[in-house]
């Protein structure tokens, strides 16, 4: 123990209180880091801060030891078992706390400077050297070991605390480039503040030691500072409060990293959604329109053999469809919203799609309800492509002779059921292609739902429900 550093007596209760605050600042710093630290941080500082937390907790306990270890126990030195436990454990905990400080600085600076992996043994070697010095200079159990306690505390401050605080300050100062991408300007200020506080602690907590018969302890020591009118204890307390304050504020790095990762995740999701939108739009729109043109040309070939007089009119219709496909493609590439040119009324929009789609078989349309329904631009686009996909599938795969389209205009949304008497298919079959996947995605994106009922030889019925205006979410009745 080193009572010369701390004046801990009943008459000096002010110093007792200050050193209690000194220990409390370090303890709360360490506890706060452990509460805030995130596992799996991608930042070097974020990964290394838990080491600084153990330094804070252990060193806070050490400083409280000067307050709470009874004077009688201190005077026992190592002559009793109780003295060995309290006094020896107190000094050992001091060395351990500085070990974590040195470990934090070496690993953080080593990561950014790309030091070799064996750098991790440097703190362990320094701690081992300190233990070896303590064992080598131990005077014996039955002797007065107070001077020995002072010497090994000086050795801990010189060998562990001074390089630990200095390297930690340099390491924190070097984190500016890595944290720049987080786009939080206050982090740079907190980095500079934390580094400056650690440099100050290098002097107050590392170099300022009791007088000893060797350099630099025989020149720069607590007595020298006292003669200058600045107690070493005051400098140590002040530096510890600054370290704790700036490290607390530097914990914002975890929140900044989390916000940055959320932004990157949203960006990735937006890119993915845009790619999915492009895939859906090309599949449901352009490709279906081109396929409709191919079916029209096939129909013209049949008309050429049976009714050549009707070919010219049909070819004129196909040329207009081709021009529309080209216009839609240009519009799509220009980034325009197709929904703006589609009618907002769902019934009118369904009629428009059935007028454009080439569907083999008799189509019967039934509309129930007379609500004045309005769809927003995105919903119109989803409904347009859903209808186009369903009718195209009927033409290509169903082989149906009859198609029924029922539209129910309900109070909060509308239901569309499209049924055919075609071949049908197994809805439990794996896969299903892009078409069925797109239908489900578009229904969900429009705020509704979709059901497909089919079985081989019994036709197919596709039912979907969408809300009006996209503001309300609907559910199955």
Write the layout of secondary structure elements.
Elements: H1 13-36, H2 44-68, H3 71-76, H4 81-113, H5 121-137, H6 146-173, H7 176-179, H8 186-207, H9 222-227, H10 232-250, H11 252-306, H12 311-333, H13 346-356, E1 362-368, H14 377-398, E2 402-409, E3 413-420, H15 433-445, E4 449-454, E5 460-467
Parallel strand pairs: 1-2
Antiparallel strand pairs: 2-3, 3-5, 4-5
Helix pairs in contact: 1-2, 1-10, 2-4, 4-5, 4-6, 5-6, 6-8, 8-10, 11-12, 11-14, 13-14, 14-15
Enzyme class: transferase
Catalytic activity: ATP + protein L-histidine = ADP + protein N-phospho-L-histidine
Domain Histidine kinase/HSP90-like ATPase: 378-470
Please tell me about this protein's structure:
This protein is of the alpha+beta class and 477 residues long. It folds into two domains: 3-250, Up-down Bundle (Rhopdopsin 7-helix transmembrane proteins), CATH 1.20.1070; 272-467, 2-Layer Sandwich (Heat Shock Protein 90). The protein has 15 helices and five strands. It has helices spanning 13-36, 44-68, 71-76, 81-113, 121-137, 146-173, 176-179, 186-207, 222-227, 232-250, 252-306, 311-333, 346-356, 377-398, 433-445; strands at residues 362-368, 402-409, 413-420, 449-454, 460-467. Helix 11 (252-306) crosses helix 14. The protein is rod-shaped, with a radius of gyration of 39 Å. The model is unreliable at 1-11 and 470-477 (pLDDT under 50).
């Amino acid at each position: 123990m080193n009572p010369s550093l701390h004046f801990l007596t009943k008459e000096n209760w002010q110093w007792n209180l200050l050193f209690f605050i000194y220990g409390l600042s370090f303890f709360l710093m360490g506890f706060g880091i452990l509460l805030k630290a995130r596992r799996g941080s991608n930042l070097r500082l974020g990964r290394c801060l838990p080491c600084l937390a153990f330094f804070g907790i252990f060193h806070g306990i050490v400083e409280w030891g000067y307050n709470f270890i009874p004077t009688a126990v201190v005077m026992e030195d190592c002559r009793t078992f109780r003295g060995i436990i309290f006094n020896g454990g107190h000094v050992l905990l001091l060395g351990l706390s500085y070990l974590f400080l040195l470990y934090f600085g070496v690993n953080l600076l080593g990561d950014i400077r790309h030091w070799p992996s064996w750098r991790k043994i440097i703190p362990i070697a320094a701690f081992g050297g300190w233990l070896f010095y303590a064992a080598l200079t131990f005077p014996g159990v039955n002797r007065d070991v107070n001077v020995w306690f002072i010497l090994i505390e000086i050795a801990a401050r010189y060998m562990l605390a001074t390089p630990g605080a200095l390297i930690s300050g340099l390491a924190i100062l070097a984190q500016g480039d890595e944290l720049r991408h987080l786009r939080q300007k206050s982090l740079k200020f907190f980095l500079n503040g934390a580094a400056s506080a650690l440099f100050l602690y290098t002097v107050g907590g590392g170099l300022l030691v009791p007088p000893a018969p060797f350099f630099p302890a025989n020149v720069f020591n607590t007595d020298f500072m006292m003669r200058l009118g600045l107690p070493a204890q005051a400098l140590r307390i002040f530096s510890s409060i600054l370290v704790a304050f700036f490290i607390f504020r530097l914990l914002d790095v975890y929140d900044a990293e989390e916000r940055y990762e959320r932004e990157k995740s949203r960006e990735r999701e937006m890119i993915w959604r845009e790619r999915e939108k492009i895939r859906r739009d090309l599949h449901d729109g352009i490709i279906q329109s081109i396929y409709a043109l191919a079916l029209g040309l096939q129909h013209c070939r049949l008309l050429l053999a049976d009714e050549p007089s009707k070919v010219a009119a049909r070819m004129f219709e196909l040329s207009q469809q081709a021009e529309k496909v080209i216009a839609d493609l240009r519009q799509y590439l220009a980034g325009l919203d197709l929904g703006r040119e589609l009618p907002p009324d769902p019934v009118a929009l369904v009629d428009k799609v059935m007028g454009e789609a080439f569907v083999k078989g008799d189509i019967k349309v039934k509309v129930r309800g007379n609500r004045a329904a309005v769809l927003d631009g995105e919903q119109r686009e989803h409904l347009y492509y859903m209808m186009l996909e369903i009718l195209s599938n009927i033409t290509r795969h169903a082989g149906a002779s009859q198609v029924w389209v029922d539209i129910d205009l309900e109070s909060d949304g509308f239901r569309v059921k499209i049924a055919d008497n075609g071949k049908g298919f197994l809805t439990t079959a794996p896969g299903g292609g892009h078409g069925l996947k797109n239908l489900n995605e578009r229904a969900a994106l429009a705020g509704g739902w979709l059901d497909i009922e089919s079985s081989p030889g019994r036709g197919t019925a596709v039912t979907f429900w969408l809300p009006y205006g996209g503001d309300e979410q609907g559910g199955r009745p």
